[in-house]
Amino acid sequence: MNVIKKLIFAPLFLVSFISLIYLTTPLFKTYNLIFSFxxxxxxxxxxxxxxxxxxxxxxxxxxxxxQDWRISIPVAIIGSVVPFCFxxxxxxxxxxxxxxxxxxxxxxxxxVVLKSYLNFQPxxxxxxxxxRLSGLLILAICIVYFFSASKMINQNSFQIPDSLIETAIEMxxxxxxxxxxxxxxxxxxxxxxxxxxKKNPELVRQSGLDPQVLDNLTTAQKSTxxxxxxxxxxxxxxxxxxxxxxxxxxxxFIPAGLSILLFLTLQSFAALINLxxxxxxxxxxxxxxxxxxxxxxxxxxxVRKMVI
Length: 308
Prior knowledge:
- Helix 11 (212-222) packs antiparallel against helix 12.
- The chain has 14 helices and no strands.
- By secondary structure, it is mainly α.
């Protein structure tokens, strides 16, 4: 019965941690999520952080209640092998090492705290350890994200998402009158001229444009879009080509930059979500004490003081 009591938080930890690994899987399949500014992406990141906080909370509670390495370490090992069920083997190995080291360091730190405290206050004793474990799990996720982004960029090169270009153009809109004036001054390009330019892409490159612009121009002319939409499309493609050429020499540094950006984003939101950990700890131990799941003893100790 005592072993069952010590394992009471193990199922809650495993459920929350498995959910966390499952939810983070899409993060390792594309780097475009970090550039998305949609509400869905915000909800996605918040859900990840909530599961990180819950996983950290339940693991620290497991270690606190069990106070036995023979119980906490096997549970940590089970949690560490979960990534093998959802992501590729090389990334899963990196994830396993990062996760297990996070749990091991947190267990060591909490053992020292539980052996040296004088008055048991769950918020002050367990709260900082939970926050540190959350930070270590975020760091492990960002390290795996770095390796996954490096693999994708090495295979397909880095492509700036269209959504980022569109957002940048919207932030610096062109005056409508200038657009209309430029549209009136632009010569009309026929389909025959477009086909001729496709056969001579060097002429397009000499103008500082990518020949792929001709494909977009053909599609736009065949559609029923207004001239303003056509102009925006050409501006978007031109800006994208120029930015791609600018960042191409620094392509090897992009995975590290994306990982740092993800780490700072997750840490910023985690600082807010972790504020809820302290009332949760108080409620949990209040319930545990009232149900007599745990008991507290008040000790009187002799203190040796010097008197002159």
